[in-house]
Prior knowledge:
Blueprint: H1 3-24, H2 26-34, E1 40-44, E2 47-50, E3 55-58, H3 61-64, H4 73-85, H5 96-108, E4 113-119, H6 122-137, E5 141-145, H7 154-159, H8 163-166, E6 176-179, H9 184-190, E7 194-199, H10 215-226, E8 229-233, E9 257-260, E10 272-277, H11 278-285, H12 300-315, H13 318-339, E11 344-349, E12 354-358, H14 364-374, E13 376-377, E14 379-381, E15 384-390, H15 398-419
Parallel strand pairs: 3-13, 5-6, 5-7, 7-8, 8-9
Antiparallel strand pairs: 1-2, 2-3, 4-10, 9-10, 11-12, 12-15, 14-15
Amino acid sequence: MSNAVEEQQLTLFDTVYTAYKEFVNPPLARFMKMAGAPVEVRARGTRVWDHTGKSYLDFCGGYGVFTLGHMHPTVVAAVRRQLDDMALSTRVFFNEQMAALAKALADLAPGDLKITFFSNSGTEAVEAALKMARLSTKRVHIVSTENAYHGKTMGSLTATGRDVFKDSFKPLVPEFEHIPFGDLEALDCALPGAAAFIVEPIQCEGGVVIPPPGYLRGVRDLCDKHGALFIADEVQTGLGRTGYMWGVDAEGVVPDVMTIAKGLSGGVIPIGATISKTDVWMSAFGKSPLMHTSTFGGNPLACAAGIAALEVLIDERLVDRSREMGEYMLGKSREVASRHPDVIAQVRGRGCVVGVELTSEGYGGVIIPECLKLGMTAAYTLNQQKVIRLEPPLIVTKAEVDEAMGILEQGVIKAEDKLGKL
């Protein structure tokens, strides 16, 4: 590599880092630099390239966004075609793309979930669900779970079950209650008079926590018993991530409301969606259809991406692939854990989301930067920093899983050598 090219690369990094430090997030910029984060410049499939031309296996996967991988050609082509005609909606006329995506979601959703409100992110999808529950039931109390993660806008944040994100913003939205995840007895006690229970089929940000068998079925029964709505937060678990089309499909249950985002974007244009049963939507908004709106929600570009993403998911049989590759990744991760019991306490997961729980949070500070140095992205789960998530695109191959496991093990060995037994 010539000196001129190296100088150009350094100049790009310095320019971006300085802008982050001065105009974006100063403490985060310093942390990322210390961890060895480069400037991302290009991505395709399961890989990302930095400003030096180095390639990385993306096993962070945008925290669940890149189910189809980066820049899937079908989704990119659909967005480009739409951009030639119309980028954003007037919000005055009917929009073909929004209608088509809403119908496609109704066709794929569990049971009789049918009417979709579109937004731009997962937390907005949750906000819509919470409003819908209160309006529909004429009740105000919302039950959520400890260790949950539902977003960081005020209602979603209140439903989130980790105090470190919430304490600085109190008082939050009133009439929220948190109970242990997986505990049906606690739910039975909390639900009388409640508008809804919001729960993730798997607590991904909570450390990839899988509920006991029968839990979601029990949730459905208890919500029916007490007249509360069952809101399934499928922002991260939906659209094949767990080896099922929807996380609730693992137990064959149908919620009253379901929130969707991340994978629905096709990894190209952000989008959020809240889909509900018709009677729930009509009870909430039937007399006031403009009670809750979004200027950019359901815009033509995002809907074109969503339609194409669903087509790819089905045509390429990525739900089945997620289950197959997830089982392979889980097995390989457990092999690494068995060789390093002083560092890795447990491995768990379902589909293409696997949590590697460390015996001490301190090890992660060595493992994650070392993986990055060796050419793989990985990250903590947001609510539990003892757990490293492995969340690759559903298109990942066995060879790429093997490559990732080799890198992960090198990171673990580095942590063992540097820190000893913590």
